[in-house]
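pasting for ref
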Amino acid sequence: MGGSDMTMAPQRGNDHGTASIEFLTVPNAAPEEWEEFKQKMADIWMGYEVDGANLNARPRWAKEWHGLKVGDKSMEQYMKETAYKDEIFRGWTLNELRNRLSNKLGDDIVYS
């Protein structure tokens, strides 16, 4: 799919297009195996490069990525400091930002 002009969209600013990939499991999968599999897949997807630079890989907000790491950063830290750093603090006051993106997850990423 193409890029997006929506401020917090995962595909915003992706000049090389966007691939939306989701992996699923059955409810009775062994939790430790599922977590290990998710991290291995995230390592692969977050490691894609073009011309020697990592792509701007961003998880979709409503999907299961809590607890994953990108290199030595938690996914939450990666989203705040790398993936969405320009979008999160683009000249808005904290109150304006809270009005635009306020739920427990958003507050944890932005205000922690």
